[in-house]
Design goal:
412 residues, mainly beta, Beta-galactosidase, Chain A, domain 5, 2 domains, 8-stranded antiparallel β-sheet, 2 helices, 29 strands
Length: 412
């Protein structure tokens, strides 16, 4: 009997490293990944194992190529990176006995003090700054911040994020923060840290705890908790409890090395009071570019509608690209927005003076995060060198929004 299982829509199962590098008995199965009407670029595909199987360490394509597979903690779900699949075509892979050699771009994680550092093979990929980081000279400690991603690198080792820049020291790599808010009649600002009356914090997003972290031949990542704190009453009060789930992997797309980062943020009211979010032109997911892009003429932005930095500000889009030269090489980072996100296509704030963008749902009008109704937002970051390819980003958004269909059957 065949068992059909679509790719999990938002996150991938957490993994145990003991299951990644072998030690599992190969199961007799064949998995078929469908390209669908539009085809698929290289990327992740997951499937449920037939009942009674224990797992596999590698899969073989018809042309003899070995693909590493990464099992979930309970062994019931396996994930692999597929090559590109043409429209209407299918990729058929079969289980193979023996241990697969880890690929050269396997994801590794190491804890360094208050941060998690991720590598793709031997290349730096990104760092999750958990605890508040150290501020540079001449920057007030009021701006110290944690709970963000920085630095983030392209596959060639070019850094594509910035932190503690003199013009906006509160902007920090990849982060989440709301700006104009109302909570219990007060107005904490979680974005402009250090910008309240007398220069003190009014709102803060603070790292809570690391729940899980993992490495693997296919992907690596972490889950964690952040606490959103209101300081405006004179006493620290928790407003939101936020959970991050981040999955990272390295693929070749059109022969070009590409890093992909999936972020799922789930924000839940900490008590019985809502967080009201009045209309405002920024606040939400923020991305700050590196120092070489600071001069106003050194950064480029492009949206899914074809708009540039000037024409795209204040518009809505399904993806946005931020880039420029670093050490003589053009590189950049694109943010793909999942179609199920609130107010998709989502409003954009493309900063006219520095290399910073924001995906800002509040720009479209008043709204709120209500008790018992968590807000879930999903973003995929595409990091690669070269000029932005709008057609490719459209295809990658399609793959992100429409998980591959995978059919699994016992091998004859």
């Amino acid at each position: 009997m065949k068992v059909s299982a679509p790719l999990p829509r938002w996150t991938f199962p957490l993994l145990i490293e003991a299951a990644l590098m072998g030690g599992l008995h190969a199961a007799g199965l064949t998995a078929t990944v469908e390209g669908g009407e539009q085809g698929r670029e290289a990327g992740l595909a997951s499937f449920a194992a037939p009942a009674g199987t224990k797992g596999v360490s590698q899969l073989m394509t018809p042309d003899g190529k070995s693909l590493p597979v990464q099992p979930s903690a309970d062994g019931k779900t396996w994930t692999l990176i597929t090559p590109a699949i043409a429209p209407g075509a299918k990729l058929i892979v079969k289980a193979r006995e023996g241990n697969a050699s880890p690929p050269s771009d396997a994801i590794h994680v190491a804890k360094l003090g208050g941060a998690l550092q991720f590598l793709a093979g031997k290349q730096p990929f990104f760092t999750y700054q958990m605890e508040a980081s150290k501020v540079p000279p001449c920057t007030s400690d009021d701006f110290r911040h944690g709970a963000y991603l920085h630095p983030v690198y392209s596959p060639s080792g070019r850094r594509v994020t910035g932190d503690y820049r003199p013009d906006h020291p509160h902007q920090r790599g990849i982060f989440m923060a709301w700006t104009k808010t109302e909570f219990e009649g007060r107005h904490p600002d979680f974005w402009n840290m250090g910008k309240g009356k007398d220069g003190k914090l009014t709102g803060e997003v603070r790292f809570g705890q690391l729940d899980t972290e993992w490495s693997g031949p296919v992907h690596g990542g972490f889950t964690s908790t952040h606490r959103w704190l209101d300081h405006t009453s004179g006493a620290e009060k928790e407003v939101l409890r936020e959970n991050w789930s981040v999955t990272s992997y390295s693929v070749k797309i059109g022969g070009v090395s590409t890093y992909l980062l999936d972020l799922v943020t789930t924000q839940t009211c900490a008590g019985q009071e809502p967080l009201k979010l009045p209309k405002y032109h920024y606040g939400g997911l923020g991305v700050r570019g590196p120092e070489p892009w600071d001069p106003v003429d050194k950064v480029t932005m492009l949206t899914s509608t074809g708009a540039d930095r000037t024409k795209g500000d204040g518009t809505k889009a399904s993806w946005v690209w931020l880039g420029g030269e670093v050490d003589g090489t053009l590189t950049g980072i694109a943010v793909l927005m999942h179609p199920d996100n609130f107010r998709f296509p989502q409003p954009l704030r493309l900063n006219p003076k520095n290399p910073q963008l924001c995906i800002a749902p509040s720009a479209e009008g008043d709204w709120s995060i209500e008790p018992g109704k968590p807000l879930v937002l999903r973003y995929r970051f595409v990091i690669r060198d070269g000029r932005p390819d709008a057609a490719l980003l459209d295809r990658l958004l399609h793959d992100y929004a429409n998980p591959a269909k995978v059919t699994v059957a016992p091998t004859d």
